[in-house]
Amino acid sequence: MEYGFIFDMDGVVIDSNPYHKIAWGKFLQGKGIPCDAQFFDNVLSGRTGPTSLKIIFGEDLPEALLEEYLAEVDENYQSILRQSEEVKAIAGLYEFLDSIREKGYRLALATSAPPLNIELGLEKLKLEGIFEVVLGKVDVVHGKPHPEVYLTTLERLGLPREQCIVFEDSKAGIQSARSAGLPVVGIASGHSKEELLEQGVSLAVDDFTDLHLEQVTGLINHR
After folding, report:
1. What DSSP line would sit under 8-63, residue for residue?
2. What does the alpha-carbon distance between residue 100 and residue 188 come to, in Å, rounded to a whole number?
3. Annotated catalytic residue within 8, 15, 74, 169
4. pTM for the full model?
5. Would residue 206 show up in a list of annotated catalytic residues for this protein?
6. Residue 89 in contact with residue 14, Cβ under 8 Å?
7. At residue 41, does pLDDT exceed 80?
């Protein structure tokens, strides 16, 4: 049977939390708002950019200002990523991707990131061309937790949801995938495994190190 493996990007493919922390810290410092590790973990980690900004600046933050702030954070992140020589994949990712490709299964990337974040991340990890379908922020009207990004990915893969599975690390991403009718493997890069299981993932792991392809296809077949 043909299977589709759909990956979120930040915290699932790329270990980007350290860079997002710096990017957000620089942005908030410029706005006179202190941002330590605790603030990042409690307010920003695992949330979408718009949600984080509305928590910080209030629900009535004008849309134009929200987009301006998001662009500023993204520019900070892109600058940091370009300069860094230490960008890493989530542990075990390369081996796991190799095992998928050896079987001829399909690979897709479904993220809320803007195009340049995706391009830079894949370039730094030397994963250009690995994912046959790549969807980002500009490809959908509704971001996660809306299911659009995963429903659109299924369409572009040309596979039924019954043959696909998602890898996510955030609550919004898990909600998005599950609303699209897809099972989820939770990667505990931003939340604990217990928190991910509470969100309804089929399996929660620290990373890809001890994850076997048979485990994952088993989750697809026995849901």
Report:
1. -SBTTTB--HHHHHHHHHHHHHHTT----HHHIIIIITTS-HHHHHHHHH-TT--H
2. 21
3. 8
4. 0.93
5. no
6. yes
7. no
